[in-house]
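Quick illustration, no need to memorize.
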Amino acid sequence: MSELSRRQFLRWGLPGVASLAGAAALATRDAPAGGPSATSASRHEEHPGMPGAGKIPDLHPPGSGKQVDPMLFLTHFDWGMTSRLADGRTQREWTLTALEREIVVAPGVTFPAWTYNGSVPAPTLRCRVGDVVRVKFANEASHTHSIHFHGIHPANMDGVLEQVPPGGTYTYEFVADPFGVFLYHCHTMPLTQHIHKGLYGAFIVDPPKPRPPAREFVMVMNGFDTDMDGGNEFYTVNGIANYYVDHPIPLRVNEPVRIYLVNLLEFDMINSFHLHANMFRYYPTGTDLERYEYTDTVMLAQGQRGVMEFTYKLPGRYMFHAHKTEFAELGWNGFFEVLPAEAKA
């Protein structure tokens, strides 16, 4: 099948939305007044438009070592095991394990992933600037792997020369600096393979004075090359194509929203985020609390990230998606369900 016909087939058959032109019809569907229930957030409905479509198998909470429910992933920030050092500093400790897992990326479509702790994206690690970060890495996979953190740290904590063979372990330790939104990923060659197979996650370092209160989400943009031809067949935010189309994210009118946005898409040079019927303040990398761009669309290369802040003034169902429309047609799509201020989200 040619590249053109293959992608056309996926567009026409993709669950949840066939094209941006069809999104208006989706927006007329009723949503639960209180947002997705625990049951509806744990699986997809069947979409007869896709050959072989079926229900997403049971998804799991973060920390289970299994495929994570994208609705739970949105708001799960892992602060690690906390202890106080003799000098008064806070130490946060995590264990990340390289595991090979078959994951679902769309109804009826699986992907042979390489993961940290069983999920793609990997857990979102969070700390405060100045904390001592200690990550115990165990490689229980069949290939050599490592962990490379973005940010400032010693050379022997960089995950480039410190390669960990199958069965091996390594402990990364450094002081979290500076504050902002970062990422971590495997840095083993061939790098393209190790990233596109799923070894990546978000790493958030809070400033000394916390950001203003807001409803906080993490969104990791990625893609999946399911036929291993060097091009993505599916594009997602947080791991399952069109998940937030079928399960809109509930918000309230006038509720402050903050999104930690990270791009870890492989093969394609640029990814993007477009917010419908609204504007947002965008803080590149999140390392500056004052300067921002006021926009409704942001473009990111691989490894770029930032903080988005916005509120909705009117209730309704509002789309967000990649403004590379091919990506939207192939799964990078979602909705916010904005409820009246007095309703419970």
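Residues 76-206 form a domain with the Immunoglobulin-like fold (CATH 2.60.40.420).
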